[in-house]
Design brief:
The structure is a single chain. By secondary structure, this protein is mainly α. It has one domain (22-129). The protein has five helices and no strands.
């Protein structure tokens, strides 16, 4: 198991300067843009932050995960394909588990972080705009 993570870490560092390196910026940026859109939508509707709700509210977990996958799934699949292409070019073989892990790091993690952050930052603004709030 230690060898797997050592190999993975060495390959992640190598990806920063190899072919298709631009994807290391574009994929998280795309995931962040999708998350910003979703986080603003959550704030407008008065929803709790996405990641916290997925973890804490078991009844709606499946529904929330499906909705999140609808946002970030295409970017994740493209990230997996691009990483597989990178591996074919550099290593002449594909490590599927690595491709999936790299895609998750590049897309899912930024999506979760930005969606919750944007919701938290935008929620007070939307709460103050609702009629009947803050009026005496």
């Amino acid at each position: 198991m230690v060898e797997f993570f050592t190999h993975l870490w060495e390959n992640i560092i190598g990806r920063a300067s190899g072919p298709l390196a631009l994807r290391l910026l574009l994929q998280p940026a795309t995931a962040a843009l999708l998350a910003i859109r979703s986080g603003l939508r959550d704030a407008k509707k008065g929803r709790t932050p996405y990641g916290w709700t997925v973890v804490s509210v078991r009844a709606s977990r499946g529904h929330l995960l499906r909705k999140g996958w609808m946002d970030v799934g295409k970017v994740f699949i493209i990230a997996s394909i691009l990483d597989g292409t990178y591996q074919l070019i550099v290593f002449h073989r594909v490590y599927l588990s690595e491709a999936v892990m790299i895609a998750a790091v590049l897309t899912v993690i930024p999506y979760l972080l930005f969606r919750g952050l944007v919701n938290r930052l935008a929620s007070p603004r939307y709460r103050s705009l609702k009629p009947g709030r803050g009026e005496s």
